[in-house]
Amino acid sequence: MQKICYDSFLEYRYLSALKASPDGKSFAFIIRTADREKNDYIAKLYLGSEESDAYREMLTFDSGIKPWFVWNGNEEILFSMALREELVPAAEEGERWTSLGKLDICSGGTRRFCDIPTAVQDLCPLEDGSLLVKGLLEHGRISLYGLEGDTRRKAVERLRDEEDYQVLDELPFWLNAAGFTNKQRSVLYRYDPTGGKLSEPLTDPWADVLSYTVRENKVLYVCQNFTDIKPMTMELEELDLSANTRRTLVPQGLFRIDMAGYLGDKVLFVGSDMKKYGLNQLADYFVLEEGDPRILASQEAYFGNAIVADCKLGSFTTWMTAREGLYFVATEGHSSFLELLTPDGTIRKLTADIGTVDGFTLCSCGPVFIGQRDMGLQEIYKLGEDGTERLSSRFQQRFLQNHTVSIPEPVFFTNDGVELEGFVMKPVDFDPCGRYSAILDIHGGPDAAYGRIYYHEMQAWAAKGYFVFFCNPRGSHGRGSEFADIRGKYGTVDYSDLMRFTDVVLEQIPQIDPERVGVTGGSYGGYMTNWIIGHTNRFRCAASQRSISNMICQFGVSDIGYTFNTDNSAGTPWTNFEGLWRESPIRYADRVKTPTLFIHSDQDYTCHFSEGFQMFTALKYHGVETRLCLFKGENHELSRSGKPRHRVRRMKELTDWFDQHLR
Predict the structure, then answer these.
(1) Nearest residue to 15 via CA among 24, 6, 23, 27
(2) How far apart are CA 485 and CA 475, in angstroms?
(3) I want to staple 281 with a disulfide (CB 3.0 to 4.6 A). Which of 277, 431, 565, 609 is the partner?
(4) Element (H or E) spanning 616, and its range?
(5) Are 98 and 119 a contacting pair, CB within 8 Å?
(6) Facing residues of 41 across strands?
(7) Distance CA 177, CA 55 (A)
(8) In the sheet that 120-125 helps form, which strands lie side by side, from edge to edge?
């Protein structure tokens, strides 16, 4: 058996975008594999059926484009492809185009289908042959469409001149993985493939459409309408395609809305009024009756998959309405499940195994989902009528058969009267008489959770001979709103839980050398790493990734600074300066003695790299051994979807740092 290495993720297959055909007899999905030489991922479309566990590779997506697809009837798939050669010069001048291809699933043949004059983010084929398109609208940007001759030449010159400037006049002005987004909105259009005509926006030009669902000629969509500061709440609107009219069902200002769909003859939405626990408040399930929201059901589970992982890549469907009700993914404890909300308000858990349901689709035989089970990597599972899960694919089988996997073992403990659970992974080739180093790994969020699933970085370190231990402190999802609510408490109860967990692990496992324990984490985990080194010297070294160090500065530079940070820090720099400063790790930087590595990305607009720079500078100034590695062209998702060579270098930086200080 081989040991897992820090670059073993290059051998994994990343499954995503599972979608069933309209009749439910077939389903398609995307598999990505890393290409180290090209420093990119190769994306391929696969086809499966409800009757068989055989899978067909249908096509390879063109490199350099975002791979996505939609079903167009039961035997055709529309998919993204590289621009038609004739459009490349226009695109280079500044026109936005999206090219679509058409795949015949019976013959496997493909051909070009159409070119849409906008940056398409999603689309849905309509019954009349037209396409409902979710595309980008850029207010204030010069449009080149239809311009010719000298008029076009001057417009192109103006566009190029504008590239040297960035004007900001709204919040947020940038988004992680998207860059500057000032005055950009996602809106709905109608596109006629036959005539090649794109309609004017069907939705308000200033409303940013987050999600939508179509039934017959009605479109239900969730959006945020703003011209200055994007609010934390959403509005729910319905578009009538036949009458070309729209109406507001739930006005903005009342709810944060996670989804909306049709449940029988009613409109259903999942949302929270945030009155008790702010952004940490779990959503309720509402139906509209005579225009008013009525709670249909409530539960202390997070709507969606909050289990963090570094072995998945791409988009996932986590809710879908059907005749039976609302199918959705929910997180409870350290697992995510597929559940069903019926029209009478009953919520039933459909899956029971420990692990994750990353995304699903509905076939005529029942749900099919992408998940992680039994410490394995992602595979396709089919759910029977009796609730039994059946492994349908074996894409990762060869890797798992040839490599040794460390199994997380539960650790139960109590802190401040609160019962908590963590996990410990033993080193591969563990010797009970040996003496070992260990790494505390802290998840991001904090509104996320660790699960008992395969996690690459932890497996790589266990294979190197480290104990790895991790838990879900207060602030994590999976245990209700009150448990997740640490507004104004950052660095208090969560820090206490992590330190108590460390104590318990060291007490229960005498093979760990308490003088050779390191700590790491990313995002909130990076914040907590920064906090820990300013409040204790018990760790031999630390590695802080995509971190926050200064809550006051974070307010002004993060894409979520004015919302998430304001809510979770219980105020702004003007209403609660002392509170934000108390929760800022950099305040305590003069106390730090722990050698610390910082990892950041220069396009991370959620935890801006200036946060890592501040902490690095403070430690260097105070004589602490420190190192910073900045990844160019990467964002907040470096550890999960970064370029392959960058992900390898990240793991090498981390592993070398631990080897240097903990061996």
Answers:
(1) 27
(2) 6
(3) 277
(4) helix 609-621
(5) yes
(6) 34
(7) 32
(8) 120-125, 131-138, 184-192, 197-198
Q: What is the pLDDT of residues 333-350, one digit of tens each?
A: 999 999 999 999 999 999
User: What residue type is 638 in one-letter code?
Assistant: L
pLDDT in the model for residue 507: 98
CB 357 within 8 A of CB 351: yes
What pLDDT score does 565 carry? 84
Instruction: Give me the half-sphere count of Cα atoms (radius 13 Å) on the Cβ side of residue 258.
Output: 23
Peptide bond into 427 cis (omega under 30): no
Give the containing element (helix H, strand E) for 150: helix 149-162
SS3 581: helix
Cα–Cα distance measured from residue 248 to residue 7, given in angstroms and rounded to the nearest whole number = 50
According to DSSP, the residues that pair with 631 across neighbouring strands are: 601
Are 287 and 268 in contact by the 8 Å Cβ rule? The answer is: yes
- DSSP track, 452-517: SS--HHHHHHHHTT-EEEEE--TT-SSS-HHHH--TT-TTTHHHHHHHHHHHHHHHH-TTEEEEEE
State how far the Cα of 623 lies from the Cα of 605, in Å rounded to an integer.
29
DSSP of 319-365: EEEETTEEEEEEEETTEEEEEEE-TTS-EEE---SSEEEEEEEEETT
CB-CB contact of 382 with 400 (8 Å):
no
Q: How many CA atoms lie within 13 A of 189 on its CB side?
A: 22
Cα separation, 168 vs 189, in Å, equals 26
Phi and psi at 649, nearest 5°, equal -65, -40
Single-letter amino acid code for the residue at 387: G
Q: What pLDDT, in 10s, does the model give residues 609-648?
A: 999 999 999 999 999 999 999 999 999 999 999 999 999 9
Residues 6+ apart with CB under 8 A from 168: 180, 182
Supply the pTM of this predicted model.
0.96
Short-list 287, 382, 420, 301, CA closest to 349: 301
β 207-215/120-125 pair status: unpaired
Residues of the chain below pLDDT 50: none
Alpha-carbon distance of 616 to 613, in angstroms, equals: 5
- 498 forms bridges with which residues in the sheet? none
Going through 525-661 in order, the beta strands assigned E by DSSP cover 541-545, 596-601, 626-631
Structure tokens, 168? 């900001």
Judged on CB neighbours under 10 Å (0-12, 13-18, 19+), 149 is exposed
Rounded CA-CA distance 198/131 in Å is 9
Give which of 406, 546, 549 is closest to 490, Cα–Cα. 549
DSSP secondary structure string for all residues of 82-124: PPPGGGHHHHHHT---EEEEEEETTT--EEEEEEESS-EEEEE
Structure tokens at 568: 């979770």
CA angle 212, 186, 159 (to 5 degrees): 165
